Amino acid sequence: MAPSRKKHANAQSCVIPEGFTVLSLQFSSDSAAQHQLFVKEHRVRAERSSHRPLDRTLFVLNVPPYCSEAVVKEFFSKFGCVESVELRDHPGSTQESGPKLSKFFQPLSKQCFKVGYIVFKNASSLSAAKSHPHNEPLVVCTTQHTVKTGVQKWMQEYTKSFIEPDKLQEIVDSFIEDYDKRKEEDAERKKEQAEQQQEDEDGWVKVTRGPKGAKARPRSEAANHRTLQKEMRKKKRKELMNFYSWQHRNTQKEHIAELRKKFEEDKQRIALLRAQRKFKPY
């Protein structure tokens, strides 16, 4: 009974702090070296994405560079049907800014250890992966599914880097069409916003509710100038002219200064006319 108890103890899963389960990974069946993956159930309350359901998504750390998404999907299919596999350089949400670009317009991915998000079809597959014994390694390269490494992998990637001109032209044309379509939509949206900002005869501007999360539209320069002029006229109507004695004194000073300025201008103009006079009787 003792040997069976020992064998049962060795067949248990290995759980480390922070809730991660250790899974052993072996490149081939005759390989002596093993690699460790650290997995746990993906639970992020802030992320409400349908691409990563909380009860069927497995979060994986320390994925080696020679494991592509297809390879990871293959050896995790041992626990059940896998819907999708996502490998990233760093953990993060699935929200992407901007349109999805083709692989020809994106930089090459880094050859480093990555993190993965494996989405199973059933929640029981997730539990099976977490309870897998750490002394039973997952084999990456098998006779049915070979994984190329080293020079063979580089040669394969170099061969795939070439693309037929016709296919490349189709991809470029499709990208340009999508780009032009987005530009037209942006121009139409800006035109509609400009029309909504126009004032009517009474000076009112129609305010409409924009999409959720959109920033408030800034006022145009012409609208700001009209508002400033309106405020100045309103302030001028409320002001009492020559009501106080100091207002009367200031008005007299401004009038005297204006007369002196006009007198100096007249003197200069008369002097200029005298200098230009050609008829000199004496």
Walkthrough of the structure:
It is a single chain. The chain is an alpha+beta fold and 282 residues long. The protein has seven helices and seven strands. Strands 1, 2, 3, 4, 5, 6 and 7 form a seven-stranded mixed sheet that branches. The longest helix is centred in the middle third of the chain and has 33 residues, at 165-197. It is elongated, with a radius of gyration of 39 Å.
Relevant terms:
282 residues; alpha+beta; 7-stranded mixed β-sheet
Question: Short description, anyone?
Answer:
The chain has helices spanning about 1-10, 70-75, 125-130, 150-160, 165-195, 220-240, 245-275, and strands spanning about 15, 20-25, 35-40, 55-65, 80-90, 115-120, 140.
Determine the fraction of residues in helical runs and give it as a percent range.
Answer: 40-55%
Query: What amount of the residues lies in strands?
Result: 5-15%
Radius of gyration from the CA trace? 39 Å
Main pleated sheet: 7 strands, mixed
- Alpha plus pi helix count: 7
Q: Give the integer mean of the pLDDT values.
A: 79
Distance between the termini: 148 Å
Order of helices and strands: HEEEEHEEHEHHHH
Beta strand count: 7
* Unreliable segments of 5+ consecutive residues: 1-9
**Helix/strand/pairing class, anyone?**
alpha+beta
Shape: elongated
